[in-house]
Amino acid sequence: MTITTQNLHRMALLAIAPFIGLMLWLLISDFGIQLDVETKREATVQPQQLAAAEETLTGLEQARQMAEETSKSLTKQIGLYKKTNAEMEEIAKVASAQAGRPLAIYDRQITNRLGKPSSTISSDKLRAQLFYLNHEHFRGYAVKLQLKSPDAMNMAMGGDKPGDAMTTLQAVKQYGAAVGVNAGGYADAKGKRYPLSTTIADGKYITGFEASYADLFFVGMNDKNKLIGGKFTKKEQLDAKKPKFGASFVPILLRNGAAQNIPAKWQSSPKRAPRTVIANYKDDQLLILVADGYNEGGSSGATLSELQTILKRYGVVDAYNLDGGGSSSLVFNGTLVNKPSDGKLRKLPTHFLFFK
Q: Which residues form the Phosphodiester glycosidase domain (predicted)?
């Protein structure tokens, strides 16, 4: 193989090429190092910049100290607020207790007049206390009721349509009531038992409005859970009372604590009989009074004038005589309390019910 001078040059170049590349890399690297050094020199912090940085650090330290002081102050203020709030709550409790004292004293007074309750039902909706009463001419029962909720009392009809009737015990069981008592009077026609005169259930007139006549009155509850009653010649008069429910009968016994005139017919026909009365106290508690009688012939039970005297002694404000005789029915905690003169409960078109 003949090696020419040209080939020798090519081989030499190939042989020294790596070394040339290495030298170039070193040169370039050295240049880069010089650039970095120059850059670092240019980046050297100047005195003015150092002073500004120190001033910033001083400001941050002051801000930190201020934050600590503010935090301590807030903590102290929160502590004072909690203490003040606790003291105010305690003052409110004491004030509330003091405000409730007159009512508690009044409740104790009217309860003592009835005697010792034989049974009590108490819930968020109501408190019902049952009392047994022994008077000279009759045995009676009283239920004092404190309504705590708008739905603690209602009036149940005897069925789905006017003319239907059921016993008070049936109404109590059907609607899940705790206490039940017979309500307004009735009239029989063609095998049906219709509520007497103006009757309202669920805010609606059952058979329309009828102006009061022959000593008839309307009694029921309004939208504020207050007993309302009286004689009404116009529907607008009764509507202004905002009645939720109620029924009609005769006569009114007490108005504002004063005995009302008893119609001659009701003084003697019958003279004595089983009776049912609904009344209220000045703190809006209710009183249900039921008197037993062996018959409706006028020889047993209570007279209406006796009931007026007894009710005044109990301290009620207004009192209304409800349907009596064999209609008088009192159910307490699912049990029939009184002794119906018919020997059994009578089916009626209206019932006042109380719920726990």
A: 176-355
